[in-house]
Amino acid sequence: MRIGLLTEGGYPYLNGDAGLWCDRLVRGLGQHEFDVYALSRSRRQEDEGWVPLPPQVRRVRTGPLWTVEDDGVVLGRRARRRFAEHYDELATALCVPAPDSATPQADRFASALYGLAELASDEGGLPAALRSETAVRALERACRAPGARRAAREARVPELLAVAAQLERALRPLSFDWYEDDGLGAVDLCHAASGGAAALPGLLARHFTGVPLLVTEYGVRLRTHYLASGADDTAPAVRALLAAFHGGLAAEVYRQAACVTPGNAHARRWQERCGADRAKLRTVYPGMDAAPFAEVGEGSQHADNTLTWVGRIEPAKDLVSLLHAFAEVRKAEPGTRLRIVGAPTGAEGAAYLTHCQALATHLFPDEAEGRHAVGENPVSFEETDAFPSPAEAYASGAVIVLSSVVEGFPVGLVEAMLCGRATVSTDVGAVVEVIGGTGLVVPPRNPAALAGACVELLRDPERRERLGAAARARALELFTVEQNIAAFHGIYLDIVSHSPVRRVVLDDTGEPLPFAVPAEAHVPGRWAGRPAHRTPAWAPGPPVRATPVSAREGAR
Fold first, then answer.
1. Distance from first CA to last CA of the chain, Å, rounded?
2. Angle at 284 between CA 281 and CA 289, to 5 degrees
3. How far apart are CA 319 and CA 340, in angstroms?
4. I need a surface site. Which of 199, 211, 269, 373 has the fewest CB within 10 A?
């Protein structure tokens, strides 16, 4: 079948775990064809280029979200009136909660969204209109309307201009020429690699041409927006209006998607709270390449008195609590060492690393065996590059520790499990779901509990070995690339089998080809007795000529 893969800031660009996951998915499903529709976030991302693409990727179409584009489209009087009506409806949906007797909020948002999409299709684009004074005045009227949210009522002109600019970028996919019969209208299934902006083209393809939509979220996009907006100094009115927009978009995506695949139960709960139908949710864990960790997992030697932490150094990892916990561990097991392996992320991470190094120096003065020997701190901070591979970093410890206070899907924890290591983790995000019963879990920000669990495992090598073996077996069963690809292959077949065939394919002689569409699709009606020049009543579009096999092979 033909898949339209929708991404934002990831595949086929050279960055991020999302891009790596998409690349593995596309390469693992070589029996299908992929058209990639990618939204880019920055010029730097575009300049870095694409990853090498496999032959099953037929084409890539990109759309920037970071530029301020002028498409040169000037709306006529009737088009301006249509735009004002739809944008007024959108602004009202963002600012004024719908009373119980009125149209539901989700329907108001959807009506405005699809009205703007149809106008963009008719006129050739809306970027200039979305940044116009008409849009700003519509927002202002909605903010001043009776019953408007308190935060919206406080919006002033600078805040309204900021909101209009952000909405223009978020709605830019409305103006793309991706939805014709030679674009997303020709695919059998749209697969959005995340929610938010990446799923918007899939929504429009479903609206215009009926293409089914599959949405995968390993990190809930709406949650990411909430966390990002709360971490900066954005005005409350701007945060409130943009949160209302992204909440409305998430609800519409979940409502229209044929299937939503969260990466863990934590993401699933978020999606349910945001309006996703439980019947449409199917958990598919991220797939990881187990091969680099195979040798370590089969049983390599390690120091019995070493705790190892591996990851990105940032405040959310709570290394301060880990260092205080290690102080308690040293009281119980004086010879224990702690290896912190990783690099800081950004300026905040670098400052946090400096703080942790100073704290380690304060808590653990350099120790020397004799009066004239050089002292050594029991805590070491090491770069990941100091090890031949990430697996070797995990192999350096008897127990792997995760001390985070915020965590989504703990990739590092899965890597440690693949290496057959016993783990001690804080109960955050999807940690308990990943670990199962193969490791010890303690409350976050509790150094005493973290220290107690570490001491238990340090003193019991046999238990460490049992937990490590069970962890490796669990990771190989649930979190490999192979299981991820198999799960999505089955979901593709299931969605397409429940979707109507939207076109008829004819051969060179004008005869219908009953197997030219996916064999797993339900084909209603009968082929026998139908003249070759007639289109079946259940096929709304004109027939499509089949490409000869020789031509397809030549194109590849």
1. 16
2. 170
3. 9
4. 373
